Amino acid sequence: MITGLIANLGNFGGKNDWLEYIVDRKLWVTETNCYWEEADPHPDSKEQ
Amino acid sequence: MQVESQNAVDHFNGSVSWFYNFKHTFDWQGTWADDNDVDFVPMISGPWLWDESSKGKKYFFDEKWGSPLCTIEDVIDVLQDAKDMRSNGVEIKRLMGFNEMYNNPPPVDLTPQEAALYWRTLVQPAAIATELELVSPTLNAKTEGVTWFADFLKECYAERNNSQHPCNIELITEEIILI
Lengths: 48, 179
Description:
The complex is a heterodimer.
Chain A: H1 2-9, H2 18-24, E1 26-29
Helix pairs in contact in A: 1-2
Chain B: H1 3-10, E1 18-19, H2 30-35, E2 39-40, E3 48-51, E4 56-60, H3 72-85, E5 94-96, H4 112-129, E6 133-135, E7 139-140, H5 143-158, E8 172-178
Parallel strand pairs in B: 1-2, 5-6, 6-8, 7-8
Antiparallel strand pairs in B: 3-4
């Protein structure tokens, strides 16, 4: 994702530190998707 | 509350630090959140504010999505109400932006240009007023999500010196990616 973002951002606006900007953000990842599961919930990241 | 719902959230005890539900407040998960020190992150999921009592949409960012129109005071009010609801629980510290705005063609979803406009005129100033950190619009790691988010950042950055409503990408402290 970060590689794709950097490729898209290039040096837009004369900003040459988009990479630093992106990697300085905290990256949050969802533990589960938004589709309600009818069976037991899928294993979380600890169990996988 | 359904037993299945409680079982579902209990499954994540100890493995998550935040949760969201696409709304500004939640229904019953407060005890679970407090017991497990989990942050609730309110979300402005689209160009509208929710009416938490009726579960419908209450205010809209533009007439093409409905009426009445939303003001900055409306956004501040719903966020402050959300914070007040948690005054005796785990504090609300962040606000999450628009949800996966690349899944449907406009006007169902927001273009990056529209999202950046509403971000700098409504979302960002309301977050500042309520002392909430900003979490980016949500995206997945696929091309459509990455491209939309990059374009959103460009639009925001391009308006960094706007005299009335400057957009500040530095205020986005977290990026969220969906799996």
